Amino acid sequence: FYAMMYEVIVRNPIPWKPIVVDTTANNGVGSMEAIYESPQTETYTLQFCPFAKGFQECMDLATYSGQQDQNTPPIINFTVPKGNWAGAFQVVALGTQDDASSIGNVPGTNFRAAMLAAATLTGGTDTAVGAETGAGTIETTGFTTTIKISGAKPSNSYKVQFCTLYNSCNDLGTATSNGSGDISASVDTRTQSGIIGTFALSDGAGFEYVAGFRVQ
């Protein structure tokens, strides 16, 4: 899993640094270079917040302290518990969200995740989901996002969406599975840069697939 952490305490969110979870080992181990938003020493908490929960039920992953202009920011290591996770990472200081994960506005790969069946997400989604059991990948390079899924419902049409954690979604295009249940689609995501959330595919039953990662 790979996403960009954005500074969200400014009017126009600014991409800072990537946050990464090792999906080869699937053990939940991740890392991020420390981000400081104040010239004063403050304590920051890195959290993961589940999809469609409105920044409720966020998990504390790591705590660190520091201030702006630190010459060599340390690497913050963390471990996400076992489960199928979709949502967003955030950095909180003094009860305020300072930074959070998003996509785009940088060249090269700026988002990479698994496409997980929505019905399998740990803790549910507090909203309607379908019953599909396929899986795949999603990757954003520049402003182009490419989705590949196998095992979907054959010959079915889906909305490709980017959704906030408050379950407000922007439609980006459509994707259609072939007769074997394979999906291959690309959409332009330049309008979603800095929006805190993740990708989803939905149909008449609700969310069918959501971008995230597995921890086993």
Would you spell out the secondary-structure blueprint of this structure?
Layout: E1 2-7, E2 14-21, E3 29-33, E4 42-50, E5 59-66, E6 75-79, E7 83-93, E8 96-102, E9 109-117, E10 135-141, E11 144-150, E12 157-164, E13 169-176, E14 183-188, E15 197-203, E16 206-215
Antiparallel strand pairs: 1-2, 1-8, 2-3, 3-6, 4-5, 4-7, 7-8, 7-16, 9-10, 9-16, 10-11, 11-14, 12-13, 12-15, 15-16
What would CATH call the architecture of the largest domain? Sandwich
CATH class assignment of the largest domain = Mainly Beta
Low-confidence stretches are none
Count of separate DSSP helical elements: 0
Sketch the major β-sheet.
16 strands, antiparallel
CATH topology value of the largest domain: Immunoglobulin-like
* Mean of pLDDT: 94
**Beta-strand percentage?**
over 45%
Q: Structural class of the secondary elements?
A: mainly beta
